[in-house]
Amino acid sequence: MSAELVQFLVAGITLGAIYALVALGFAIIYNASHVINFAQGEFVMIGGMAATAFVDSGLPLPLAAAAAVAAATLVGIALEKLAVEPARNASVVTLIIITIGASILLRGLASLVWDKKIHSLPAFTGERPIAIGGATLLPQTLWVLGATVVAVAALWWFFNRTLTGSAILAVSHNRLAARLMGISVRRVLMVSFGLSAGLGALAGILIAPISFTSWDVGVMLGLKGFAAAILGGLGSGPGAIAGGLALGLIEALGAGYLSSAYKDVFAFVIILGALVFLPDGLAGRRAAERV
Amino acid sequence: MSRKGFAVLALVVALLPLALTNNYTYEVAIVVGLNAIVCVGLNLLIGYAGQISLGHAGFFGLGAYGSAILAARYGWPPFAGLAAAVAAVSLIAWIIGKPVLRLKGHYLAMATLGLGIIVAVVLATEDQVTGGPDGMPVPPLTLGSVVLQGEKLWYWIVAVVLLATVWLALNLIDSPRGRAWRALHGSEVAAGAIGIDPARHKLSAFVLSAALAALAGALTAHYSGFITPAKASFLHSIELVTMVVFGGMASTFGAVVGAAILTTLPQLLTVFKEYEMVTLGAVMMLTMIFMPQGLVPTLEKALAAARRKPE
Amino acid sequence: MLLRAENLSKSFGGVAAVQAVELGVERGTVHSIIGPNGAGKTTLLNLLSGIYRADAGQIFFGEEDVTSRAPHEFASAGIGRTFQNLQIFFNMSVLENVMAGRWLHEACGLAAALLRAPSLAHAERRARAESEELLGFVGLERWAHSPSDGLPYGALKRLEIARALAARPKLVLLDEPAAGLNPTETREIDQLIRRIAERGITVVLVEHNMKLVMEVSQRVLVLDHGRKLAEGDPETVSRDPQVIEAYLGVEAC
Q1: Which residues lie below 8 Å from residue A44, measured CB to CB, with a gap of 6+?
Q2: Per residue in A191-241, pLDDT tens?
Q3: Residues of B with CB below 8 A from A226's CB?
Q4: Which contiguous run of DSSP H or E holds residue B148?
Q5: What's the pLDDT band for C150 if we cut at 50, 70, 90?
Q6: Closest partner residue to A272 among B111, B278, B288, by Cβ?
Q7: SS3 content of chain A, % helix, strand, coil (to 5)
Q8: Across the interface, do B285 and A111 touch by the CB < 8 Å criterion?
Q9: A179-193 exposure pattern, b = at least 16 Cβ within 10 A, e = fewer
């Protein structure tokens, strides 16, 4: 395996891990509420930008990161309470516009609260590259991959072994039945949004040392995370992860071997192809319309 | 109702120049008109046929660049280039519409979003042809030896095109085909049961709205004398959809009103240039939460309810 | 034989909803399909209107093999239908719902629609008048210009019938038109079905209301667990011991 290929694969998996976290956020919210949260990318942005701001104000990195995740979680819950809940019976188009509006609003607020400059976080454990198989790896990359694995494992435990997690799954399968069993759908929605926001923020913090952060970093990340979620089959957790990784790899390999100018486009071309030829996604389901 | 509305619109368009004091206000009015042309078409797709497109700025940009490139780099007579660009974009919409419109809801949203982004990136990257992210100059339209330039002249050009577009749209809505589109939106399954082929009609709504967007794009290019890829951006697509849903879905006049309000508002708020995004986002959210049908239909319903009160 | 189905089968994920069903509907009759819940009645109706594609078997309408056609092609062949869970066009008025039903006979080109050709204006007037007449036929004339989402349930069921009739079908599939109606409204549906049959339109009726079925049908097909249990005239079917056991209960009248 050429060193170049290994380099691209590493870049692809790193990117893929980030996309997977964002896609998971989409999947969790979609499952609980059938809403596509176009503001998901902004949670990534808030994670990175808030952490940067906290670090700049003197907080040590771990605390700054935790505070940033907490801040994003609060924003996620606020989004659910203020924007999604009032419109819960609205049509697909309406909800799409609301969340897109929220993403624009958050971006505008970010440019006012912070600024429009590019920021970065210090790498978690230094910047000396590690050599593996002829290619070089940033320590931060290991953090990204490691943290993603831990996050996914934690989510699995949460959804399968805790009461709240099971409640969220119940709501995603059958909202009415869940309600009849005494599950508070409102609380489930709140937790889902908060959780997704936290995941997004985590992704933003992990990637900030490598590819920096700024007020509008969330746009593309959000769209690609959405694309990854659809690629994996909307609503499927494992699908989101697979979709994210696939997308990251496609983008890295495409940018490396084909054209770096069109880096952003690969994801969308693949998505279009997948939507048109693979309507059920890599691992998803298709509901039949009941008449 | 729609005949009266059209008369009112024609009157407003004819009398507006009395209120326009300088070139800048004319420019705003022209941009309103151009946006309204796109929105009327987009409204036919979203409000009537019940589909969604988050990438319509792509058609706008393709129409603009198509006409610009044919005129600037290939020396085509501008009106011929314009017509060719609109025709080409319609063909493109027809080709990609067929597979893409089989999708529904979020999947359709994602597909149209992706298409729009691909167009925007291609326009910005192929700088040999398009001038890259900084854009390219566009020669003006000429009619024989007359160069079509200047705010006042363009106001009337856009006014005529807008009125024609609205007139066509109103005719369409009141026709069996318009009802077929609305039936599709109401219940695709029931529409099939009365012989309406969903695929065929979604496609014609898509192509028609793409053609109108391309026309507005081409006109914009020749009016401004310049075109940049930002005109095909995701943000521009979202702005257009917002104008349609804010003004009123399934309401042609709503589309015009939405375009008018949301184009002039940022101009009035140039003082608050920094707050533009916050305002746009807030408008989108608040409208959809409190007035999900849009401004004009909500007002119509309120008026109808008020009229019924004295009993 | 206007509508004929041979060996029709449809499964969903391993569960056979309809199995090897044979059906023969004579022109100008009212033909009912009955059976307990889950017997496959709606699935059969969806097969007969193109919404589901059969896994096996064939459907013939007149001389044509319509088995693998799309729903709108079934409609253009002359089969209309109503829906068990209403599929009213709530974004249109009552009259517009019925006018929409005329699509097959009013199709106009996009150019003609955009330019409002004079012939169109005349056709629109006629469409309006004939649709109002149909609303009268089903008893909804006073609601013609109301928004459809304000109508009571029983009225909406009749609106669906008017819309289906607007397409001038040769045969109409009525999916539980009396479901959820009180006895008065059910009697009105009974009379409406007879009036439809009097106009020469063949009716295939899926119903739970036994009294309605027995009074209005010439032939009855009984489904149970996706299979044909019995077929014949109402009298004979209601006396069939298998039918009684599966559906009507042990006491027969």
Answers
A1: A18, A22, A200, A201, A203, A204, A207, A217, A218, A221, A222, A225
A2: 889 999 999 999 999 888 888 888 888 888 888 988 898 888 877 788 889
A3: 110
A4: strand B146-148
A5: confident
A6: B111
A7: 75, 5, 25
A8: no
A9: eeeebebeebbbbbb
Q: Are the CB atoms for B42 and B248 separated by under 8 Å? A: no
Q: How far is A155 from chain B (nearest CA, A)?
A: 25
Q: Are A168 and A192 in contact (CB under 8 A)?
A: yes
For residue B86, give every residue at least 6 positions away whose Cβ sits within 8 Å of its Cβ, in sequence order, or none.
Answer: B63, B67, B211, B214, B215, B218
The angle at the Cα of A122, spanning A116 to A127, to the nearest 5 degrees, equals 130
Q: Compute CA distances C145 → A2, B71, B177, whole Å.
A: 73, 52, 20
Place of tokens 């490598």: A210
Contacts of A291 in chain C (CB under 8 A): 42, 46, 51, 83-85, 87
Spatial distance between the Cα atoms of A56 and A52, rounded to a whole number of angstroms: 6
- How is residue B69 written in tokens? 């490139």
B141 beta partners = B148
A82 three-class SS:
helix
What's the whole-number mean pLDDT along residues C112-131? Answer: 82
Q: How far apart are the C-alpha atoms of B27 and B143, rounded to whole Å?
A: 21
State both tokens at B244: 């349609």
The residue among B3, B40, B179 with the most chain C CBs within 10 A of its CB, best to mutate, is B179
Report yes or no: B176 at the C interface, CB cutoff 8 Å. yes
Per DSSP bridges, beta strands C219-224 and C30-34 are: parallel
Tokens of C71: 């729903």
Mean pLDDT per 10-residue run, chain B (311 residues)?
A: 83 87 88 95 91 94 93 86 95 94 86 93 88 87 81 91 94 88 92 92 94 96 92 91 88 92 80 77 87 85 77 49
Burial status of residue A216 (CB atoms within 10 A of its CB: 0-12, 13-18, 19 or more): middle
Q: Maximum Cα–Cα distance for chain A, whole Å? A: 62
Residue A281 zone, left/alpha/beta (φ > 0; ψ -120 to 50; rest): left
pLDDT, position C50 = 92
The whole-angstrom separation of Cα A247 and Cα B2 is 49
> What are the two backbone dihedrals, phi and then psi, of residue C204, each rounded to the nearest 5 degrees?
-115, 120
Cα distances from C119 to residues B172, C112, C116, C123, C216, in angstroms, run 14, 9, 8, 6, 42
Contact between chains at B193 and C71 (C-beta distance less than 8 A): yes
Name the residue among C19, C17, C16 with its Cα closest to residue C7: C19
Compute the distance between CA of residue C194 and CA of residue C29 in angstroms, rounded to an integer.
10
Q: How far is the CA of A207 from the CAs of A6, A109, A188, A255, A262, in angstroms?
A: 20, 22, 29, 18, 21
Q: Chain C contact for B183, CB < 8 A?
A: yes
Residues from chain B contacting residue C116 (CB–CB below 8 Å)? 171, 174-175
* pLDDT for residue C247: 66
Find the length of chain B: 311
Q: Which of residues 42-71 of C touch A (CB under 8 A)?
A: 42, 46, 51
Do B255 and B139 touch, CB atoms closer than 8 A? no
Question: Is it the case that residue A147 has pLDDT exceeding 90?
Answer: no
Q: Which two tokens stand for residue C168?
A: 């001038």
Q: How far is A98 from chain B (nearest CA, A)?
A: 5
Top-confidence residue, A95 or A75:
A75
CB-based contact A47:A69 (threshold 8 Å): yes
C84 reaches A (C-beta below 8 A): yes
Residue B223 vs residues B63, B75, C99: alpha-carbon distances, Å: 13, 18, 43
Nearest alpha carbon to residue C45 among C5, C76, C13:
C5
Strands annotated E in C54-213:
56-61, 64-65, 79-81, 171-175, 202-206
Q: Is B16 helix (H, G, I), strand (E, B) or coil?
A: helix
